Amino acid sequence: MGGVRKTAVVTGASSGIGAATARRLAAEGFNVVLAARRRERLDALVEQIGKEVPGAGRLAAVTLDVTSQDSVDALAAGLPACHVLVNNAGGAIGMEPVAEADPEDWRVMYDTNVLGLLRVTKALLPKLIDSGDGHVVNITSLAGHVPYEGGAGYNAAKHAAVAVNEVMRLELVDKPVRVTEIAPGMVHTEEFSLVRFRGDAERAAKVYEGVPEPLVAEDVADCVAWAVTRPSHVNIDRIDVQPRVQATPYKIHRV
Ligand SMILES: NC(=O)c1ccc[n+]([C@@H]2O[C@H](COP(=O)([O-])OP(=O)(O)OC[C@H]3O[C@@H](n4cnc5c(N)ncnc54)[C@H](OP(=O)(O)O)[C@@H]3O)[C@@H](O)[C@H]2O)c1
Questions:
Q1: Which residue's CA lies nearest to atom 32 of ligand 1?
Q2: Closest ligand 1 atom to 20 CA
Q3: Spatial contact of 66 and 119, defined as CB atoms under 8 Å apart
Q4: Most buried of the four, 20, 49, 210, 236, by CB within 10 Å?
Q5: Which domains does the chain have, with CATH numbers?
Q6: Helix (H) or strand (E) holding 246
Q7: pLDDT per residue over 132-150, tens digit each?
Q8: Is the CB of 239 under 6 A from ligand 1?
Q9: Ligand 1: which of 14, 23, 75, 240 to mutate, most ligand atoms within 8 Å of CB?
Q10: What is d(CA 197, CA 180) in angstroms, rounded to the nearest whole number?
Q11: What is the pLDDT of residues 171-200, one digit of tens each?
């Protein structure tokens, strides 16, 4: 069985959507490379997934900073093969209106959500093509399609990621590589809002206050798993996914 397993690389696999995706792809029979900056969390997840998923393939933890070309090059150099790349590393910083926004926050968001996607995709593309059945899954956001007040920096970065995703599908049309965008609405993950509000747990908790059932990381992992397990001639272009109680970023039913 080991020889026929495909390899999936998941960036930002140390928490939230990335961790859930790594677990789910292991359960779907992939060898999984979990990549992020916090190595100790990745090592713990590798151990946990190995125990939780009977018959899991190879699981590997790789330290990766998508804002560092050297780090991305090291990931690519250590990878014998790659069939699926899930560009998930990213996130938001701050929610200030444009009038008060800090360009440094915007720079970090662009570096992570857009240039990170470019660096990792570019580095792994030869392996994705060589696999004969490659697939790039980009985790963008509803914020990449619908602007909202206070969201400009994150909106801009995710809109850019959406554009890159679309261009990739055009450019790779004659290659054996599928390109899928997954654009989630509100997902209650442990760290997304905590990072956005710079560790302010109270403010982070308010984001999900009264929301009966936001999406959870496993819901997005489910979308990834579905897209990558379609027959290889089927390209799922984009999945927009929101909790039932959300209609758009600023229209959320709270109880
Ligand atoms: N939660 C939501 O509501 C939501 C909605 C739509 C889209 N998204 C998108 O979904 C993705 C995952 O979000 P999440 O909710 O799971 O957030 P999260 O729990 O904060 O996870 C973000 C992941 O990205 C990694 N990361 C951040 N900067 C990195 C860097 N420079 N290099 C490598 N890895 C980096 C983090 O790991 P390390 O810190 O260990 O590096 C972490 O594993 C993001 O792209 C986010 O924008 C989230």
A1: 65
A2: 16
A3: yes
A4: 20
A5: 7-252 (3.40.50.720)
A6: strand 246-248
A7: 999 999 999 999 999 999 9
A8: no
A9: 14
A10: 29
A11: 999 999 999 999 999 999 999 999 999 999
